[in-house]
Amino acid sequence: MPYLIEKNNLSRFGSLELLARQVVEGFITGLHKSPFHGFSVEFAEHRLYNSGESIRHIDWKLFGRTEKLFVKKFEEETNLRCQLVIDHSSSMYFPYQEKPSPEQPDKLIFSVYAAASLMELMRHQRDAVGLSFFSQQLDFHTRARSSRVHQQYLIKQLEQLIDPDKGKQAVRTSAAEALHLIAERTHQRSLVIIFSDMMDDPAKAEEMFPALRHLRYNKHEVVLFHVMDHKIEEELDLQNRPYRFIDMETKETIRLNPVQIQEAYRDAVLQRKNELKLRCGQYHIDYIEADIHKGYNQVLTEYMIKRSRMY
After folding, report:
1. Full-model pTM
2. For residue 81, what are the CA distances in angstroms to 19, 35, 192?
3. What gap in Å lies between CA 76 and CA 56, rounded to an integer?
4. pLDDT, tens digit, for every residue of 153-190?
5. pLDDT tens digits for range 61-78
């Protein structure tokens, strides 16, 4: 039986809006600043009047003070194109559950409900939404659209991701190649929101950063939700006894007592996370630590409030 997203569990943000931090290119009037100037909503600047053009937008008050003809220029407001990107490699099904739920989520359920909640918010803002899934490659990609039918289609695609049997497969992450493709296939000046545990092949770890930079080079605003099980994956907070650890992406196993390596493990994870945060800061990418135990509703709400205060 296919999994159905519980619509009543989607986050409600009240009066909060997800506004673009930078100018965006849209196709209908909306909430966000456009890079194109016209005679629309918000005053932007004056420019000298050119002989022969309409006198409709001449600032006559300024003419009275300067005896020069200036035209008022306005900045259009537009809708936002948002591309939601979800990593669905095998590691995103951790902690593995036969019957996942939003109350006790794995990393993928967390990401799916967070994405669906943002999609619902975009619908109310009349913004366009696209969806991308990646694992070893870019597995699914749609361009951003704002129609109700399109958003219902995206919800169905999200529901198909939630399949516990996929968590038993050995599907690795190759984020760099997928993000390069997304950067090229997504309309310029879009908002790209990524949900991933960023557990790529260690040999390819450095390739991730040029891919993130590529998104910014193509004038996308980028938000990265680093989805983790903080207690286990970062702190290795387990009982003092032997465990058999299984790599969900390679199925390699190792037996050990976590207490023996806990300190070295924490240092390695912290170093990796700090490097990611540093690079995101350099590229002007919003980095959000998303602990699945806090719940997608709390993580999203905290970020939305912080963003509304900053931008």
Report:
1. 0.80
2. 11, 14, 9
3. 17
4. 999 999 998 887 777 777 788 889 999 999 999 988 89
5. 888 888 888 887 654 444
Phi, psi of 48 (to 5 degrees): -65, 140
Quote the distance between the C-alpha of residue 288 and its chain's center.
10
Q: What is the DSSP string of the chain?
A: ------GGGS---TT-----SS----SS--SEEEEEEESSSEEEEEEEPPTTS-STTB-HHHHHHHSS-EEEEEEEEEPPEEEEEEE-SGGGGPSP-SS--SSS--HHHHHHHHHHHHHHHHHHHT-EEEEEEESSSEEEE---B--HHHHHHHHHHHHHH--GGGGGS-----HHHHHHHHHHHSPTT-EEEEEE-----GGGGGGHHHHHHHHHHTT-EEEEEEEE-IIIIIT----SS-EEEE-TTT--EEEE-HHHHHHHHHHHHHHHHHHHHHHHHHTT-EEEEEEGGG-HHHHHHHHHHHHHHH-
Q: Provide the token pair at 88.
A: 């669905």
User: What's the confidence (pLDDT) of residue 1?
Assistant: 53
* 300-305 LR contacts (CB < 8 Å, sep 24+): 300/11, 300/13, 300/114, 300/117, 300/118, 301/11, 301/13, 301/16, 304/13, 304/16, 304/18, 305/16
Structural domains of the chain, ranges and CATH numbers in brackets:
7-16+80-310 (3.40.50.410), 32-78 (no CATH)
User: Is the alpha carbon torsion for 227, 157, 209, 34 positive or negative?
Assistant: negative
- Residue whose pair of structure tokens reads 């198909």 in the numeric block: 160
